[in-house]
Amino acid sequence: METEKHCLRVVVKVGTSTLTHDTGRLNLHNMELLARTLSDLEGMGNEVILVSSGAIAVGTAKMGLKARPTELRMKQAAAAVGQCMMMHLYDKMFGEYNRVVAQILLTGEDVDAPVRAEHLHNTFESLLELGIIPVVNENDSVSSAEIETGKCKVLGDNDTLSAMVARLCRADLLVLLSDIDGLYDADPHANPSARLIHRVEAVTPELRAMAGGAGSWRGTGGMATKLSAAELAMGAGVDMVITNGARPEDLYGVVNGEDVGTRFVAKPPCSALS
After folding, report:
1. What structural domains does the chain harbor?
2. 221 and 180 Cβ atoms separated by less than 8 Å
């Protein structure tokens, strides 16, 4: 007799470095693979929420700028242009697999204020109940926290945003798709003998010391922000996995609990231990 498969509520965050080429142009191959994989996971009975970066980088390229803007108002203009293009493509690509997507743009206040957070939670619940895949990003055109300094106490980067969304939606799993296979004990770009860490049960000062600074010029995140996101997720009882976004099909193994990337294991609630 077959055992019934447990379906999960999964938040998947994809970074700018996965969504774009070095030129800043969209990596359509990666986007299509991601849309196909997430559509299939949803078809298997899982509930899927996508947190997507890339708006500023894509807007920068579409506006014909040679480099990412440095002035805040120009970054926000690039975000407005890029977000429109991103959602157009997501709608088209997910539509190829008969999936409907919905755009949700957030600021720190949306998840920090109790009443707004409750309305937001209800929106997510309604969309997931209808089989719709929410596509989330920080509202860069009105919020300067991520764009400028990351000093907003709630958000500041999409790694943090995805952890907040996972907590708000009471997700079972958060997956960060990055340009690296997971957390290493040394910088794998500089040290060929660096070893991938497959399982983490606590974010320690030693782990933080392994994390470098920000990632590529196209994004704002790095391993340090991912460790902060892991702490948020684990504190909310949500497992988090970092894996390589160049292989979206690895999500099947991640959802099945296989040894893919680095898994940050959340401790069960105290009530579950008693």
Report:
1. 9-273 (3.40.1160.10)
2. no
